[in-house]
Design brief:
Blueprint lengths: L1 E2 L7 H10 L3 E2 L2 H6 L7 E2 L2 H8 L5 E2 L5 H7 L4 H10 L1 H7 L9 E5 L15 E5 L9 E3 L2 H21 L9 E6 L4 E9 L5 E10 L10 E5 H22 L4 E10 L2 E9 L10 H6 L3 H6 L6 H4 L6 E9 L11 E2 L1 H5 L5 E6 L7 E10 L4 H8 L6 E2 L1
Parallel strand pairs: 1-4, 2-3
Antiparallel strand pairs: 5-8, 6-7, 6-8, 9-10, 9-12, 10-11, 11-14, 12-13, 14-17, 15-18, 16-17
Helix pairs in contact: 5-6
Length: about 375
């Protein structure tokens, strides 16, 4: 069963639901999308709980978590959600795997009184419940701390209004030690027996050590082959501790000197805004079908003809110093012309969300300069004020 919510439902997700005749919960979004009459729409609590006890549930957006928590109180799903969305609780639960990892919880009302001088730097300041790197800061010195606190206070109300409290908490934060290494975003699920199944691995590229943006994610044959075994082993260890079954996840980790440390895990979905679709364009894996039908990728076959190709998700985030109300136009055509092959581009409403949209691209490895350039581009040349 699918629960569909804003901010984005892709054509791939919508078409997969209709083609496969998957069940959808009746709400404003599913009604607006106009699914054909033979799709079964369930919208009463008892039917959904009974359904979830026997079959699988997926949502494209964490905006639906508020409804799930309020209406499916007796479902195991609610417990799984809290484990992963509450970043402080998650750190506590995996403490046996990472006994030396340092973290603490703070409240915005007391943030001015915190003395950070004894804390090992750099460290990360982020919402206890978070999404899309909103409110995430790398703190290297006192000035970084004061700037972050100032920005958090300014953005508390706006971020709180954009997303439900179960998605992002504007008042509760955690401080945790900076995790070294290359960052990866993983789409995976636990099958009905509790075995993890990895369906994509994206390397999160950064422009500098201070960068915490979501601008660029890439996947390739090399990335999959080098990381599949150790990521699967980590997920198995995690599943053994938490006893998870029949559940989809979007996992963020860093790997340094062959040691994997999780950053966070997002429940009930794969990569947000349906950017998980990149795995379909890159490898022919339909992520929604794979989860619902418990399919497992045969990576040796899938990667056979993928040598020398890089597939990317590019998030077009708005520069912080540009007032949204003054933006008249974004030149998508000019931006798209900079790339070797844009598979798909998606526009978003900048008046509602902090991004202009996203691109899915295919790039030959010997022409990856286009990716290096977009990683550091502030996009101002494409913005008409």
């Amino acid at each position: 069963m699918f629960i569909l919510e804003n901010p984005y439902v892709s054509d791939l997700l919508r078409n997969t639901i209709e083609k496969k005749n998957y069940d959808v919960v009746l709400n404003d979004i599913s009604s607006e999308l106009g699914f054909s009459e033979d799709i079964v729409l369930r919208n009463d609590e008892e039917s959904i709980i009974n359904y979830c006890d026997k079959k699988l549930l997926y949502t494209n957006s964490e905006n639906s978590i508020e409804w799930i928590v309020e209406n499916l109180t007796s479902s195991k799903i609610v417990e799984y959600i809290d484990i992963f969305k509450n970043k402080y609780r998650f750190r506590e639960l995996i403490g046996s795997i990472y006994p030396d990892f340092q973290f603490m919880e703070i409240n915005i009302d007391a943030i001015d009184s915190i003395d950070i001088s004894p804390l090992k730097k750099p460290f990360i300041l982020k919402p206890k419940y978070g999404f899309l790197s909103i409110g995430v800061y790398t703190i290297t010195n006192e000035n970084d701390w004061h700037e972050a606190v100032k920005e958090i206070k300014e953005n508390t109300e706006s971020h709180g209004n954009l997303f439900p409290k179960e998605v992002i908490s504007p008042k509760n934060f955690i401080i945790e030690e900076f995790i070294q290494g290359t960052e990866y975003a993983v789409d995976a699920y636990y099958d009905n027996e509790g075995k993890p199944v990895v369906i994509n691995i994206l390397e999160h590229k950064f422009s500098s050590s201070e960068d915490v943006s979501d601008r660029l994610y890439i996947t390739s044959k090399k990335i999959i082959e080098e990381n599949l075994q150790r990521i699967t082993a980590f997920l198995q260890k995690l599943g053994d501790i938490l006893h998870i079954k029949s559940f989809p996840l979007h996992v963020e980790v860093r790997i340094h000197n062959n040691q994997l440390v999780p950053i966070e895990i997002n429940p009930m979905r794969f990569a947000g805004w349906c950017t998980t679709d990149i795995v379909y364009y890159a490898y022919g894996i339909n992520p929604y079908e794979y989860f619902i039908e418990q399919k497992k990728p045969i990576w040796k076959n899938i990667l056979a003809d993928k040598e020398g190709k890089i597939y990317s998700v590019i998030i077009l985030d708005k520069p912080k110093d540009i007032n949204t109300s003054k933006i008249q136009h974004f030149d998508y055509d000019s931006l798209i012309s900079r790339f070797n092959h844009v598979i798909e581009y998606r526009k978003t409403d900048i008046s509602k969300y902090p991004i202009f949209g996203m691109l899915f691209t295919e790039t030959p490895e010997d022409k990856d300069n286009e990716l290096k350039e977009i990683l550091t581009n502030n996009l101002k040349e494409f913005i008409k004020i």
